[in-house]
Amino acid sequence: MSFRDNGDKEKVQEATDIVRLIGEHLPLRPKGKEFVGVCPFHNDTNPSMNVVPQKQIYHCFSCGAGGDAFSFVMNYHKMDFVEALKFLANRAGIELTPWKPGGQGGDEQGPSERKRIAAANAQAVDFFKLLLNHSEYGREARAYLERRGVTPEMVETFGLGYAPDRWDGLVTMVREKGWDKQAFELAQLIRPRKTGDGDFDFLRRRLVFPIFDGIGRPIAFGGRKLRDEDDPKYLNSPETPLFNKSATLYGLHAAKKPIIDSKTAVIVEGYTDVIACHQAGANNAVAALGTALTPQHVRELRRYCEQVVLVMDGDAAGQKAADRAIEVFLTGDLDVSIAVLPGGQDPDELLKAGGLDAWSQVLAEAEDALGFAFNRMQASLESSETTTGKQRVIEGFMTKLIDLGVARMGDLRRAFVVRRLAEMLHMSESAVDSLLAARSPRSSRAVESYDQPADIDGPDATDMAQYAYENEVQNGLASSHSGHRLHAVGIAERRLIAALVRHNSLFSATLSDGSAIDEAISPAELAVPDHRALYQRVFDGLAEGRPVTLHSLCGDLAVDGQHELTQLATTADRELDEALPEPDPDQDDFNDLEPVKELLLDAAVAVIRHRRETHTQQLRQKLTQDNNAPPGDAPGNAPADDSNRQAELLRQYVESRKANPSPGRIARL
Asked: In the record, what terms sit under GO molecular function (predicted)?
């Protein structure tokens, strides 16, 4: 994606503190001069993402994710650059000047399907809001909200609206406003009639609950009936490219920060329960849209918290939800507790009767999922009068735990669960472990092996050695240490790039042969393709006299959607930090120019040596192929018509060997 730079990117960068930005999305804790948190871009169980305020970057040492504020928003929220720019500008209160596409990669082909659906959803939210506030059309919906005691503040926070009592209210608005009709169809907001021409509204005569994603963008809608004769009670949007019901939590846009602050998410049953909780001040409540807690919900919540409390009323549906919570607990993704509301009340009734104190008491009495399951088993055990009956209850409980995921637990969590079960059942830990092991599924698949018959004809050892050598040459593997060599030169290339970004003046640093870096190493000569691409960006900027900083480089790469190169830039910078000597703590004005220069020159030597070795190896390969000589023989005996070419190749080969007397070895950096 290419855009004409009008200065907005730099304004937004300067106005955005990356620690505060990421801290709004993830829990962070200070560690020295940096901050650490659980990386949201892989299944991180031990905080491995560092946020560096001095450089305004983040970097994960486990998966390599890294970049600046733009990169974080783009990757975390699955946005393109313009969407991330608007998001950060709005957050910082900066008014953007219009962006205009320039060159290839803009929006010449029109907005994507996802963007069209998002635009239709936003227009629908405004339409439903307008009708809710209409003196005549919205009267019935406003009366319902008044009976439920929903305040205007909550109506605004959750974007509530009203779908009119007609078949084509939204359809008519789309037509009259000239909106993108197909986008509304893709969003499942309007549908074609099964008979005859025209379309009809999906939601009619209902209170509308827009469903927002984590940053407040409408992705779907729910509608509650206002009259008894209208069924079903709730009607939800079908899934679309923007809306995955199993991964969406209602109210997350309003609850995310309170969840991060409290490290706890409270999951209630439905839309009105969430609104009641937030209205009473219990702002870390969300709902799972009528589904049980799913693995997708867990992945989403793990970004923000360590503990989930599932609030249920104890009915059959609640028991099923509890089983799912036990599975989540056993597999170790989150700590899950279950709170049962007293007397069959819903959250709204409890909060109105007892306020936040009563709500907090219910949450404080929540049992962890395993304890909740045990208490249910205990009730069955007490109702059984025979030893055989009690045995069946215990064995059935163990089998259920196996089915729910005990076999997938890690060793530490399994040991904890076994200890808890032993205490609950008044059995030894070894006995509990044996019961679980006896019911764990075992693989019945045998490992098959096939021995090659001894009498099959094949090449002899000499032929195999010759083939191995030729194959090695063919693939450019002239040394058994080629893997290490490529790894070493990769480190050297990253160090070269990071050093130049850290200190632009080193671009003209002089090597031992008198040549400068900008003359001695061109981008095309780097061995790793991504390194070549990143070095090209740095090289071009410095050659044109433009300052290149890590901050500006990440911003430019974000514009072009070059996430891999952004990660590479931050990885190279962090590797350079690790290679530098520790600064003197008593020296406030420590300047790392000289140690960085020393590392740069060593890296440049390694890169140049690898380039020469590669050239020598290529010449050797050409000579070997042309002569078809056995390994170790001196090149020669070329056909007469190729004598000139062979002589030139041989001359180049000899000169290359003289210039690089130790091929096959690169000093470890």
From this structure: DNA binding; DNA-directed RNA polymerase activity; zinc ion binding
